[in-house]
Structures
1.
Amino acid sequence: MAATTTATPRRAPAAFVVLLILATASGASARGDGNGVYEPCADATVSRGDGFTFGVAFAGRDAFFSGGVQLSPCDGRLPLQNAAKLALFRPTVDEISLLTVNASGAGDLTSAGGYMVAFAGRKFAARSPPVFVGNSSYTVTGFTLVFEFHKGTLQNLFWKADGCSSCSGQANFGCVENSCAIKTSSCRGGNGGGGAGQVDCSPGIQLAFSGTDKHEAVLNSWYEVSKLKQYSLFGLFSNLKDSLAGQFSNFF
Ligand SMILES: *[C@@H]1O[C@H](CO)[C@@H](O)[C@H](O)[C@H]1NC(C)=O
Ligand SMILES: *[C@@H]1O[C@H](CO)[C@@H](O)[C@H](O)[C@H]1NC(C)=O
């Protein structure tokens, strides 16, 4: 499997001070990319096989709301300056990908506030609900992010909790918001978690695509992901060096 480095957008969203978070995507292949939009805060209409740029902002839960309404991190009204850390990705539409956020260069992600929101677009301004990443007690390291497109325009972004059956009864795990969460004390210091342990707790994000592209072709990696889950999707990525997947399979 060829690992590719994430393309960096030409401009970062204005609302952020972009801190250094190295992000890598695996599984993205370069078939003709017909999407010329590289900014996460701009609108793109995509077809299958195009690249699609989106961002993930890390901050406290309240930082994503203004007047009780959750706004896109692209919205300048949010007080995210200095508070948020940002990772940018450009996966291939309708291709199963596992993204990892290497947080070790930027310090502890949980210190950014412990929640993350995925976002893309300006007019449509899709943003996921905030999802718990970690605090000094627990750290969640595996996420599934679902992209819902309609005729190639992103309508919706949401996290799909995988449940806690894979970690139930494991001494070093708890169940937080219906996801397996490792005790932060088991995490390697400064790398996502901040504990004194050995596990790389950098978050890994599994992507799934649903809906239709601009030619109204059906995106079906969502179907593939739900079908594969029963055979442990993480196993698919076990050849990813230094990845969350490797860490997990060693741990269980
Ligand atoms: C993560 O970043 C650190 C510091 O920049 C680097 O030393 C390390 O090799 C990186 N790890 C991966 C898996 O890319
Ligand atoms: C960490 O988050 C979990 C889940 O939301 C919560 O139960 C726990 O009290 C939090 N711990 C701290 C130290 O904030």
Note: Residues 22, 102, 104-105, 242 surround 2-acetamido-2-deoxy-beta-D-glucopyranose (ligand 1) (CB under 6 Å).
2.
Amino acid sequence: MSLNLCPIILFFFFFILTISRVRAIGINWGNTASHPLPPPKVVELLKSNNITKVKLFDADPLVLPALSGSNIGVTVGIPNSMLRSFNSSKKAAESWVHDNVTRYFSNGGSGVRIEYVAVGDEPFLQRYGEQFHPFVIGAATNIQAALIKANLEGKVRVVVPCSFDAFLSESNLPSKGHFRSDLNKTMIQLLTFLSKHGSPFFVTISPFVTIHQNKNISLAFSLFKETAHPHNDSHRTYKNSFDLSYDTLVNALSTVGFPKIDIVVAQIGWPTDGATNATPSIAETFVKGLINHLHSKLGTPLRPRDPPIETYIFSLLDEDQRSITTGNFERHWGVFTFDGQAKYQVDFGQGSKNLVNAQNVEYLPSKWCVVNNNRDLSNASARASEACYVADCTALSPGGSCFNISWPGNISYAFNSYYQQHDQRTDSCDFGGLGLITTVDPSVGNCRFSVELHTSQSDSLHRACYFQWTTLLTTILVCLLRFTL
Ligand SMILES: *[C@@H]1O[C@H](CO)[C@@H](O)[C@H](O)[C@H]1NC(C)=O
Ligand SMILES: *[C@@H]1O[C@H](CO)[C@@H](O)[C@H](O)[C@H]1NC(C)=O
Ligand SMILES: *[C@@H]1O[C@H](CO)[C@@H](O)[C@H](O)[C@H]1NC(C)=O
Ligand SMILES: *[C@@H]1O[C@H](CO)[C@@H](O)[C@H](O)[C@H]1NC(C)=O
Ligand SMILES: *[C@@H]1O[C@H](CO)[C@@H](O)[C@H](O)[C@H]1NC(C)=O
Ligand SMILES: *[C@@H]1O[C@H](CO)[C@@H](O)[C@H](O)[C@H]1NC(C)=O
Ligand SMILES: *[C@@H]1O[C@H](CO)[C@@H](O)[C@H](O)[C@H]1NC(C)=O
Ligand SMILES: *[C@@H]1O[C@H](CO)[C@@H](O)[C@H](O)[C@H]1NC(C)=O
Ligand SMILES: *[C@@H]1O[C@H](CO)[C@@H](O)[C@H](O)[C@H]1NC(C)=O
């Protein structure tokens, strides 16, 4: 090879590197829903919107087969509840890797392109206390050893997703960023483990929660608006909340001796309901601003021209059974509604085309449950509160899309949510005689009274078992026939 070709080859090498950096925008796919959209439809949704990476929270046996052959890069998750057993048992870690990774893995081709195993789901969240801290490193080490044994070292990397509250800066200045003091020791062990195995640091950044909790950050600053008042940190100028949080983390990493470790933003998004500032149009501004910022490759003041190696938007779909201990917005992070309809427009790689919605979605019949106005409604509010204990009433909260529907419209909303979650069973619209089933859509303005999907979680599980049973029976029958013939 002639020497003067080298610069050109190098140029193309870096060109390709930069391109792949820009493209690394994925999405989180959670399944904490009463009626999850069937996995094959979700995979179609990902493919038709050119989404090339997806992060899961478990290793759902209905989800992974659906991703086979899609060439989508996948992160599978280990729930926090399994960490204890994987810390104490190499065998348990090996079975998990065998059953949930090795069985599906392929590097392209017909299997699942698994890139990461996420050990725990934000095990360091402050509200969990220290219950998972003693198991995380041991579990990660045993999973890593199991991957090596399965010949997957370097192909599948072990990561530990860290919550936004694992690092902080009391003064809001990134230069004063540090890890939460109860995490000092664990963080050093974790970072030592990650760098030894070439794994990046997975972290959640949440400009929404920052503004929700800290009134001193302006909405414009959170939304990447040019007009936002910048925050200065000695000679560094911060123009948006994302850079501020990111550099707070970079500084925390530097403080414990890991200034260069690669960062993956594992969860970042903006909810669309259930709180003030949680609307589709604000969410659109945020996600568009974020994606433009990542595409600009500007990086942050502490890591100029070095943006996160990958970024996973949170989240793909709304999930009506997510915990709401941190706020009613928690069930509304989706770029798409629970049934796969785009709430707003963003560019995931499909260019200027609109997002494609989920196709051929199967719903329950067009029926709703509302309050019967001809009855004595003196106990209706109590009934609605009971319904809301299991149903999803988050849209009724202040700032929510149904906050303004007046009484007894809000009672109907609660009744309907309960009725849909119970697959429109007649007895789930009773409410002591106060419920009434109707075929007239009670939705008003932005307040949507939903009709649930045809497939419930229990449904799909039953179907999977039924399928296995019928396959088994068929096999036995065929064998018997062969034997007798
Ligand atoms: C997006 O994916 C579709 C197929 O699903 C493909 O035809 C199209 O070229 C892709 N667009 C881009 C910009 O990669
Ligand atoms: C984690 O596993 C190690 C090795 O088996 C064990 O010594 C340790 O006690 C475990 N930690 C906890 C907190 O159980
Ligand atoms: C993964 O593997 C373990 C161990 O074999 C098994 O108990 C578990 O059910 C599997 N599936 C998931 C979703 O973790
Ligand atoms: C953790 O680190 C911080 C900052 O470096 C320090 O102030 C704090 O005392 C440490 N906490 C523990 C428990 O070591
Ligand atoms: C609020 O932020 C501004 C910069 O935008 C800063 O000057 C001010 O000190 C902050 N106030 C508090 C109470 O943190
Ligand atoms: C922040 O820094 C910029 C540029 O260095 C400067 O123009 C601006 O006045 C500073 N703002 C504050 C509030 O100190
Ligand atoms: C309302 O509830 C109370 C207590 O459960 C009950 O005694 C009363 O009869 C109810 N009123 C109506 C109108 O159903
Ligand atoms: C609710 O109604 C008030 C007053 O009518 C209006 O100012 C506000 O924008 C409405 N909020 C929503 C979320 O529709
Ligand atoms: C419905 O609205 C009434 C009156 O504003 C209120 O007292 C009640 O708690 C609301 N119920 C629900 C389920 O939001």
Note: DSSP finds 14 helices and 14 strands in the chain.
